[in-house]
Amino acid sequence: MVVYFIKKETMKTTSTSLKLITVVMFLMLGSLSTGMAQNSKPNKIKPTIVLVHGAWADGSSWNKVIPILEKNGYHTVAVQNPLTSLEDDVAAVNRILKEVQGDVILVGHSWAGVVITEAGIDPKVKSLVYIAAYAPDLGQSIESIHKDGFEVKKYPKSPVTENDRVVSDGFIRLKDATVLNYFAQDIPRPEAELIAVVQGRFHVSTLSAKVSNLAWKNKPSFYVVADHDKIIPPQIEADMAEHIGAKTYHVPASHVAMLAKPQKVAEVILEAASAN
C-alpha cells in the first residue's frame, strides 16, 4: 500500500507538472508568434528627397541642408540643372526621378519652382516644397509674374536691375557685387564670394518659359517665404504660396534661405517628408 501510495502521488505530481509545462509553452508560443507577426510588418520606407537648385547656383547650394536630412534618415539627391532652358532642366530632374526607387519629395529653390511645378506631375512625387521659389500658374512665366501676375503694382520692385548683371551669348551672370549685396547678403562673405565664383549661367529663354503642367494642383505643397529676399519680393512669394494653397512658413533670410537658415529650411522639408 505504501508503494502504491507513493506512485499515485508521483503520478499526480507528474500530471500537474505536465499541465504547467503545457500552459507555459502555450504562452511562450503565443508570445513568439506575436513577436514574429510584429517583426513581419514591413517598416515604412522613407521617401527620397530630391533637391533642385535655382538660377545662378548649382547643387552645392544645398550643402548645409543635406547633412540635416541625411541625419534624419532620408536619402537625398541634388540635381545639377544645366539652366539652359525649362525643358532641359525638367529633363535633368526627370532623369533623377527615374533613378529613384519609391516615393519622392521634390524641393525647388528660386527658378527651380518653375521646374518642379512642371516635373512634379511624376507619380513618384508625393509632395512639393518651394524655397523662395516661383510657383507659376498656367500661362505664367517669371517675367509675367513680376510684371502683372499677382497684382504687381502693390509690390516693391527688386533692387536688382539690368546693370547688376552681365549677358553673354544669351546667358545671364550676376555681377559679384550683386551676389554680395542682393542675392546672398546675409551669409558669411567668403561663402557669398564663392557663390559669385561658381554661379551657373542662366539662359534668357527661361525668363519667358511657361509651364504646361501644374503639379501643385493635385499634390500637397509647402512654401518657405524668405522675408529678406531682394531677388523675389517676399510679398510675391507669399501671394504665390497662397495661390497654390501651400502650407506656408516665413524665415528671416535672403534669397538663399537654405544657406542662411538651413535648419529652418530643413525642418520644413522634413515636415513634408514625414507627412507623406
Q: And the CATH topology of the largest domain?
A: Rossmann fold
Low-pLDDT runs: 1-14, 20-41
The number of E-state strands comes to 9
Which value, in Å, is the CA radius of gyration?
A: 29 Å
| CATH class designation of the largest domain | Alpha Beta
- CATH-defined superfamily of the largest domain: Alpha/Beta hydrolase fold, catalytic domain
**Largest sheet descriptor:** 6 strands, parallel
Task: Explain what the structure shows.
The chain has 276 residues and is α/β, with parallel strands linked by helices. It folds into 2 domains: 1-41; 48-274, Rossmann fold, CATH 3.40.50.1820. Helix content is 43%, strand content 16%. It contains 10 helices and 9 strands. The N and C termini lie far apart (78 Å). Mean pLDDT is 86; it is low at 1-14 and 20-41.
Overview features:
276 residues, Rossmann fold, alpha/beta, 3-stranded antiparallel sheet, 2 domains, 16% strand, 10 helices, disordered N terminus, 6-stranded parallel sheet, 43% helix
